[in-house]
């Protein structure tokens, strides 16, 4: 009864009073968390990668001055280049191996200024995340141009 | 008489805990927030990975460009949201090129060419693709996808990652 009288009152054109905001509030309150969850905190960026093309894999190792290669093996990271031996960093402790690799790459970049390229050689079952991690380390050390390759043609 | 009645009713509601709060200012804030979120959602939509794909974290800060999206999750490869191949098939295939993906890529290239021609832009020179890979996928799958993209004219390949804060 009371509700009906209120509704009739609102139907009068000259009553400007209260707008029924609750439905709008309900919609907003459900939409905003949804959007917040899906959009606001997902910051996607990209890494440009060159390809494991047939020519790159088959290229002779001494074509570039320093053919820097990082091998991601199951048990160790190995860094190899022309005129330097193979440096291996066992991956028993992941964080320690990552920092060792990072230091080694920094040293190499310091010793060979102008080096921008690095080849990252993975095993067929290497996880994508590990490759991205090594690319990050290489980029932080000043080697932004990473090419991905597989280990088949690289057997040393 | 009527006003007294109304006042009484309002007091009743107030006693129940609701009351008439002034919601207009809150609505203003919510509206602005909603518009902002909708806008960021729409502009970033291209890069929102499909469900089931957990992107790896990285320190990369290059912002993504709109391009063809190939998503790889634990058991399938998606091109622009459509399933094109399954992971076991790809892993077990002796070929480097993934045939169904190659087919779809060529269809996409033809579409791009057609669009460019209608716009009068001429031949599409560089084709770009973005790979949204789950962090658990194996390198042999990624390699085959990249090889297939390369073989079908997609030379600029970007790997999508989640930006570490």
Characteristic key phrases:
heterodimer; A: 156 residues; alpha/beta; Nucleotidyltransferase, domain 5; 2 domains; 42% helix; B: 165 residues; six-stranded mixed beta sheet; 5 helices; 45% helix
Helix tally of chain A? Answer: 5
Instruction: Indicate the CATH class of the largest domain in chain B.
Output: Alpha Beta
Spatially, the strands of the biggest sheet of chain A line up as: 4-3-2-5-6
Q: Compute the separation of the termini of chain B in Å.
A: 63 Å
CATH architectural arrangement of the largest domain in chain A: 2-Layer Sandwich
Strand-residue fraction of chain B? 15-25%
Note the main sheet of chain B. 6 strands, mixed
What kind of sheet is the major sheet of chain A?
A: 5 strands, mixed
Order of helices and strands of chain B: HHEEEEHHEHE
Count of strand segments of chain A: 6
Strand elements of chain B, count:
6
Report the structural category of chain B.
Answer: alpha/beta
CATH architecture of the largest domain in chain B: 2-Layer Sandwich
The total number of structural domains of chain A is 2
CATH names the topology of the largest domain in chain B as: Nucleotidyltransferase, domain 5
Low-confidence segments of chain A, given as residue ranges, are 52-64
